[in-house]
């Protein structure tokens, strides 16, 4: 059904779309973005899917800017493990202890500019500047929610949007990072899906997000007031960028650096089964969260098309394998986005509980009321419905927990990251 013929596309548009919207995501003229707004959520799913495929926003560098954007080919030092940094420094003929100084400056004091590393000789700083960098992401804008959540909209050196969300809580801060710019999955309830995959992020770009978020809130080199938890629930499918993700997690765990241990990191996947299986035997692994979204294959195929590749039985068998290897201190959870009148009925609660019980899975289910955003054709389930759903799960022995949304007003909540620019950019600092 996919077509490259623009005239045929127009016919589909006039038949199924309520209106064309252009919502401008203008990265200093670098990007142009068009989305198609769709009408009724479930009636026209197959057609809708086709529309998403056909009308995924097309991000391309504007011609004028293509000349201006020069790929920064310098090595991103933020993406090096301590061992790699030693090798780099020794290879350029410097003593190994310099690498320890650099690692502490970049990863512990969170410096992003070689010139600020005052314990290095000036000549070495200059040498580093020529071949390497410690700062590749630039903040485009920042938004502050009424609940204290902060959304940073950044761009990569080659112009792709990256979003990171800082969520302050009483006893800890949570930073929600992105693993990809955009996302290749096509979950119909998620705004990021509408961007399509722009590109996967490097390990350095993942680590940098955390450094930038902490610096933005506390200042460079300042100790955070609370412990930092990380969640890989921003834009992208982390398990489709597995190597960079694991490398970033290893770098951040280093006691000489950020020292955010894997037990403080939770990575969410829509269900990339081979990577879940791989995680079973990885020693320093993060906590795992699995996005379920629907209790049956029939519905999950529609809401989360990745289900067609790895259906529920296969996914839950891999989950069981993972659950059996859980060690003390590790956490394993399910997530279930609650869409009003779509996946939130009593019957669906029973189906979900039966499904998990059948697979003898004991992990709790986080119920996430949908975070609405134009043009997503869904609404959050009302609080009373969520509570009823939760109590049905409980009555069948499945532990349910209702997640409070954070940062909805600034498009910072789950599934709302789509490089949205708002008028009220806040220069908190
Ligand atoms: N791709 C990964 C991680 C990003 S999404 C995954 O699918 O798990 C992180 C979580 O947000 C997932 O559980 C997803 O189901 C949920 N989510 C996506 N869009 C949402 C929305 N609009 N409202 C509420 N939750 C949403």
In short:
The chain has 13 helices and 16 strands. By secondary structure, it is an alpha/beta fold.
Relevant terms:
429 residues, alpha/beta, TIM Barrel, 2 domains, ten-stranded mixed sheet, 16 strands, 18% strand, disordered N terminus
What does the model show?
- By secondary structure, the protein is of the alpha/beta class.
- It folds into two domains: 75-133, DNA polymerase, domain 1 (Orthogonal Bundle); 140-422, Aldolase class I (TIM Barrel).
- The chain is built from 13 helices and 16 strands.
- The strands form four sheets. The protein has a ten-stranded mixed beta sheet with strand order 5-6-7-8-11-12-13-14-15-16, covered by helices on one side. A two-stranded antiparallel ribbon has the order 1-2.
- α8 links the parallel β11 (227-232) and β12.
- The longest helix is centred in the middle third of the chain and has 16 residues, at 203-218.
- The termini are far apart.
- The chain binds S-adenosyl-L-homocysteine.
- S-adenosyl-L-homocysteine (SAH) is lined by residues 185, 189-190, 233, 237, 268-270, 291, 293, 335, 337, 368, 370-371, 414-416.
- The site of S-adenosyl-L-homocysteine (SAH) has 18 residues, from β12 and β14.
Number of helices: 13
Coarse morphology: globular
Largest sheet: 10 strands, mixed
Task: Give the spatial strand order of the biggest sheet.
Answer: 5-6-7-8-11-12-13-14-15-16
Fraction of residues in H or I helices: 25-40%
Order of helices and strands: HEEHHEHHHEEEEEEEHEHEHEHHEHEHE
CATH class type of the largest domain: Alpha Beta
Quickly give the CATH architecture of the largest domain.
Answer: Alpha-Beta Barrel
Distance between the termini: 50 Å
CATH topology of the largest domain: TIM Barrel
Q: What bound compounds does this protein have? A: S-adenosyl-L-homocysteine
Could you give me the name of the CATH homologous superfamily of the largest domain? Aldolase class I
Mean pLDDT: 84
Query: In total, how many beta strands?
Result: 16
Tell me the strand percentage band.
15-25%
Low-confidence stretches: 1-69
Return the domain count. 2
Structural class, by secondary structure, is: alpha/beta
Radius of gyration: 22 Å
